[in-house]
Specification:
Layout lengths: L6 H12 L3 H14 L7 H21 L18 E5 L6 H8 L17 E7 L2 E7 L12 H6 L3 E7 L4 H14 L2 E3 L13 E10 L4 H14 L5 E3 L8 H12 L1 E6 L12 E4 L4 H8 L1 H6 L2 E5 L7 E3 L10 E5 L1
Parallel strand pairs: 1-3, 1-4, 4-6, 5-6, 6-7, 8-12
Antiparallel strand pairs: 2-3, 8-9, 10-11, 10-12
Helix pairs in contact: 1-2, 2-3
Length: 328
């Protein structure tokens, strides 16, 4: 299908060629992207323009003397944990985000349709997790700012395609993460690293398991894989195991949900406080308000590991589902 580009596009393209600085090039490229018609004939061109935007944004930031901790895109964490979705082109990362959240990433059959991180919130019972779709990573190209983005997340969800060499895709993506000094929790870290490693919780998501034949391929993949990372087979097309994926995210997150109540009142079971496992009463009080820590005398607790109304002190370790009544 022909692109049928309007004259204004070619004028913006001329400005791009004549631009002297990365910032000027980004401005021209974004203008080209705005003007360009959106249809199948421009799919590859749009992807190419987006890759260039990411490239020159990174260059522009370096020119300004940005610190190494800064990236081309900064996404504030929200919810109980931030889950960054990574993987090769066309593995279905954007489809996964679209299925589980209210976000509207561009989903297409051509590679590199995602050119900037796209956040969305997915609910698990009475809490939410933040999912973050990202541009694809390959041995040939990865946006320069992706490393810092992944290093700051809580959990990595690696999405691979069961129909396109899943073992190869896993090994290549895993190798790229190792080059970024990013390693799964519990895995050995190479000796002699010049800089500190980043240890992350990680789950492997095998997508496009749409039918019986795909299920057989998934079983073969597991036999050949020989890796102890958590793994789930899904189908964004059929809705297969999407709820299971979110449940596994909760299990990986290492958090507990604790509820509070005022004396003589019932707790609001729709609004838990989210804490790391092994958190104490004092840490809960700190999260509620700093004055609670100073004035805390004791608390009463209801839960599976205690008797109802049991009095506890600051160092008591809380459990999932506990209801706490703080006295100051």
């Amino acid at each position: 299908m022909p692109a049928n580009l309007p004259p204004a596009y070619f004028e913006a393209e001329r400005c791009f060629r004549e631009a002297k600085t990365p910032a000027e090039k980004v401005e021209a490229l974004e203008e080209m992207l705005t003007i360009m018609p959106k249809h199948k004939g421009t799919d590859k061109l749009r992807a190419d323009v987006r890759r260039k935007i990411s490239k020159f944004k990174a260059q522009s930031q370096q020119k300004k003397g940005a610190s190494r901790k800064e990236t081309g895109y900064s996404i504030d964490k929200e919810g109980a944990a931030q889950v960054v979705i990574v993987g090769p082109p066309n593995s279905g990362k954007s489809s996964l985000l679209a299925k589980l959240t209210n976000a509207n990433p561009e989903v297409a059959e051509f590679p590199h349709s995602t050119w900037k991180p796209t956040p969305g919130m997915v609910r698990y019972e009475n809490i939410q997790f933040q999912l973050l779709d990202t541009p694809p990573i390959t041995n040939e190209y990865m946006d320069p700012w992706m490393g810092d983005l992944i290093r700051r997340c809580d959990i990595i969800a690696m999405v691979i395609d069961i129909r396109n060499g899943p073992l190869r895709q896993f090994e290549e993506t895993f190798s790229i993460l190792k080059d970024l000094r990013i390693f799964p929790q519990g895995f050995p870290v190479p000796q002699g690293l010049e800089k500190a490693p980043f240890i992350k919780k990680m789950i492997v998501v095998v997508n496009k398991v749409d039918n019986g034949e795909d299920e057989e391929d998934y079983e073969i993949f597991l036999e050949l894989w020989e890796t102890e990372l958590p793994c789930v087979d899904i189908s964004t097309k059929m809705g297969r195991n999407l709820a299971r994926f979110v449940e596994m995210i909760y299990d990986l997150s290492g958090i507990i949900r604790v509820f509070t109540k005022a004396p003589g009142k019932k707790p609001d079971l729709n609004s838990p406080f989210v804490l790391p496992k092994e958190s104490t009463l004092e840490e809960l009080a700190t999260k509620i308000h700093k004055d609670f820590v100073t004035n805390l005398k004791f608390a009463r607790i209801w839960g599976e590991s205690v008797f109802d109304g049991q009095m506890i002190q600051r160092d008591h370790i809380l459990q999932e589902g506990d209801v706490v009544e703080i006295h100051t």
